[in-house]
Amino acid sequence: MSFITRRRAVDQRPAAQGDHELAPTLRWPHLVALGVGAIVGTGIYTLTGVGAGLAGPGVILSFAIAGVVCMLAALCYAEMASLMPHAGSAYSYSYAGMGELVAWVIGWSLILEYTVVCSAVAVGWSGYAQGFLEARGLVLPPGLASGLLTGEAGGFINLPAVLITLAVAGVLLIGVRESANANIALVVLKLAALAAFVVLTLPAFDPARFSPFLPFGFAAHTGPDGAPQGVMAAAALIFFAFYGFDAISTAAEEAKNPGRDLTLGIIGSMVACAVIYMAVAAAALGASPWQAFSKSDEPLAFILRSGGHELAAVLIAAAAVIALPTVIMAFMFGQSRVFFAMARDGLLPRGLARVSPRGAPVRVTLFTAILASVIAGAAPLKLIAELANAGTLAAFVATALSMMILRMQRPDLPRPFRTPLWWIVGPLAAAGCLYLFWSLPALTRWLFLGWNLVGLAVYLAWSRRHSVLAGN
């Protein structure tokens, strides 16, 4: 049973050479943009409305809670990423801190997370794209506008969601630095659109719309219609809106100066996005009754239209259509790097770890794109987002635990970034993530368990015997 606890040494570079090695081409501006591109997306453009439906004006408190938990986790990530600048993120940290079996579970969870995040963002993008097209008089047939599992009348496949997923994969296959430069330009456009939204809604801001502040209470509970309600239920969903900084850590081997660039990328993107989210959420709640925009697939554009800003609503929708793919790009990038790391370690077929001459792991990028497009084409946004949250929360807990374990077992290791008050930040990050996990719907928790039971079977049947640490 030694395979359960065998670990990779913290300072051991993964065996990589030739077409199994990633080239360092990214600097900290690329990484900050990657983080902001991953974080600012469907969460603020779309889930603002869904969250308001769960918590009312208290959704702004949900944003704050989810943001604090993510900030604590980000501090743990910053230390681990600078200590172990390897592709694989929480998977690699767990391998060094807690052993191969836990690493496999976390890697398997990350595969779930990154794949369904790509799908969720694609579905959110589709809502804005269809709204933009409808404003131009172009309406998709019901069979091509929503997925089979959404419950929408006549829904069969969400064709726009499928197409954007495959298009982003094509951009990533062009090359790492080229796609990173494109990402920076799109992130600037996306932030400009959100700033314009705040400015345009300020004249309509009415503090009376924040009362009652907690119409559904604080703790997560089941409402009369059987749906979850409360500030914590919204926080467990809105958590989706904040993470994305972990995608930066998957680019560790491609950073030119990992110790500096990863720290600036993770902490910088998280702080910037927390400020942006609070401003946009407050502006939305003050400018329109939450009962109205909570039912919209494009809440920010809906609020602007309600305020008489028809042209601005079209432009916001256009900005979302153009810029939301940066989120898909960031998470598909992260997914391919987790696959790459697991394949290079022998836990997945090693052929998946091959990269193209332009530095892109082609096979895993294509696999991710196909799988994500299938999910996006069929499933509703809320279910996908909650399932993505489950995988992310598991990875965050594992990173916090790995940070604490290595602080106690290897205090001598050189750490370019050190988590402040680690004995407080680490436990709070883990506890906060566990509480958010428990606040997820029971169906989501069962689906997550089922996914990992399948993963455990794969590990016991194949991966443990093909692991590099097993001597293969």
Class computed from helices, strands and strand pairing:
mainly alpha
List how many beta strands DSSP finds: 2
Q: How is the biggest beta sheet arranged? A: 2 strands, antiparallel
Mean pLDDT: 83
CATH topology tier name: Amino acid/polyamine transporter I
The run of helices and strands is HHHHHHHHHEEHHHHHHHHHHH
User: CATH architecture, please?
Assistant: Up-down Bundle
Please tell me how large the radius of gyration is: 21 Å
CATH superfamily: Amino acid/polyamine transporter I
Overall geometric form: globular
Strands ordered across the widest β-sheet? 1-2
Continuous helix count: 20
The portion of residues assigned to helices is 55-70%
Could you list some keywords that capture this structure?
472 residues, mainly alpha, two-stranded antiparallel ribbon, 20 helices
